[in-house]
Structure formats: C-alpha cells, structure tokens
Amino acid sequence: MDSSHHTGMSHMDHNTTVSHAHGGHDSMMMPMTFYFGFKNVELLFSGLVINTAGEMAGAFVAVFLLAMFYEGLKIARESLLRKSQVSIRYNSMPVPGPNGTILMETHKTVGQQMLSFPHLLQTVLHIIQVVISYFLMLIFMTYNGYLCIAVAAGAGTGYFLFSWKKAVVVDITEHCH
Amino acid sequence: MHFIFSDEVVLLFNFWNVHSPTGMALSVLVVLLMAVLYEGIKVGKVKLLYQALASLPTPTHQQQFIEETDGESIGSDLLPDSRTRLRWFLCHFGQSLIHVAQVVIGYFMMLAVMSYNTWIFLGVVLGSAVGYYLAYPLLSMA
C-alpha cells in the first residue's frame, strides 16, 4: 500500500492489505497437511510469528524444552502424590476360596485430605499440566514439520531423562501413561 | 466447523487424498489400525518394563526397588555390574523410543479427528475400542 508499510514488512507483501483490512482474520489459511517451512508461521499467540530460519530454530528449542518440561511435570506429580499419601486404610473381607475354604482378602486404600497443602499443590500442578498439554496439542496442530519434530523429540528426551529414576519404582496398578 | 459425512478428505499428508468411497473405506481401516496400534503400544510399554525388572539379577534387591521412593539412583549400590547397567540403559532407551512413537501416533490420531470427517472419527473410536479390548487383558497376564 504505502511506502511506510513496504519498508517495515517486506516478507508479507501480499498479506499487508488482507491483514490491514480484516484485522488479523486468517482462519482460512490454516494448513491441513504436514509441511516444512519457516515463513509466516503463527505460533499460538497473535504476536508470535516466525519468519526466518533463526526464529524457527529458536522456536524449535523452546518447543523442545516445553515438551521436556511436560514429561518432567508428569513424573514430578506422580512422585509428589506418592510422598503425600496420608491415610492408608486396610479393609479385610472374607471371600470363598478354592476347596470351600474361606480366605481373607485385604483391600488397601490410600487417600489424601481435600484441604491439605499437598492436594492443593497437586491441583495447581494439574492445571499447569493440562494447559501445557493443550499448548503442545495446538503446536502440533500448526502442521509445521519442524515444530512437530520438536514436540516428539522433546517428549522422548523428557521421558528418557525423568523416567529413569521413576522406572525403578513400579506401581502395578498404574498402566495408563 | 462441524462434523460432516463425506467421501472426500485430505488426511495428514499431501499425498493422502481421498475422493471415492473405496478410498474412504481404506482410510478408515488405516486409521482404525493406527488406533489399535496406539492402545497396543500403551500396554507394550508397561509389559516391557515388567520384563526388564523381572530380568534383573537379584530378586531380593528387586524388593527394595518396589519399596524405595526416590532417594537412591539405580546405579548406586544395587547394580554394581556394568554390563547390567548397560542392559538397563538400553532397555530404558528402547522404552523412550516407544514413548516417542506413542506420542506421535497419539497426535496423528488427534489430527485425523480434526479433519472433522465423521467416518474417520468413527474409525478412530472403533479402533480405540478394539485395541483396548485386545490389549488390556495382556496386561494382567504374567
């Protein structure tokens, strides 16, 4: 349009009029297949646009660290939960066993008080975990190949680093990681 | 954006272009198998961990593994053998690769559902159901 626009934004020549007229409405330009590129990549927030290879490298590192932090947060919450188990109740009840004998089956219940500090801390960490997991989902939803690889690699590295010690303590009842 | 019944969809990659009912049926089958694989990987990861723990050299030390929290690292005094440490490292590295596969397949399934095609969505749901049905009994098997 004007020369003032031209000097400032040389990358988005064909987008200048569109964004100027519609105020940033671009939901039709969301890709639906994987691509590799670093021009005009919007990342999560409206001001965060990647235009150069350097910015893409920075975004790669940031997303990688975010995915690693997410895995670490999962492990940390689990270990915090184990440490703060307050009450353990044992319930025994008779059940019929083989050969007509009566066996005593013992159920163990671990619990937490609702208004205790560990539970409030768990809740706050849970909210952070949910938000970060949605951010990672939205990042993967940009369909940008570099960012998706960053998410996957960060998750793998985070799992490798933080589950190393956790793998030593195995809870038989947990199987939905 | 809403769910539509359609025989045309582009799924995940530029070359995965579906225009016909046959192509759609095939795509639904592929997505279904992907969901079955995802559930299988979840169970497989846990079973691999059990196997690795079971193959550790001394059973008495294994008891201590289950009871300790996070005070000691695995290499301090319970696994002095460097060959065993290497085996544990390789096993954990393999588990991390399986975890990466699980994350990637999970996101692929999310993106497939995001195409807002009802057939694909039903394929994902059915695949998850079949995968869970087939895989979880294997978890409680020794």
Helix content of chain B: 55-70%
Along the chain, the helix and strand elements of chain B come as EEHHHHH
Alpha-carbon Rg of chain B, integer: 21 Å
Number of DSSP-assigned strands of chain A: 4
Low-confidence stretches of chain B: 59-77
Question: Widest sheet of chain A: strand order?
Answer: 1-2
Main beta sheet strand tally, sense and closure of chain B? 2 strands, antiparallel
Proportion of residues in extended strands of chain A? 5-15%
Structural class by sheet pairing and helices of chain A: alpha+beta
Quaternary organization = heterodimer
Helical fraction of chain A equals 40-55%
Q: Please tally the helical runs of chain A, counting DSSP H or I stretches of 4 or more residues.
A: 5
Rg over C-alpha atoms of chain A, rounded to the nearest angstrom: 25 Å
Describe the largest sheet of chain A. 2 strands, antiparallel
Mean of residue pLDDT of chain B? 83
Give me the strand/helix succession of chain A.
Answer: HHEEHEEHH
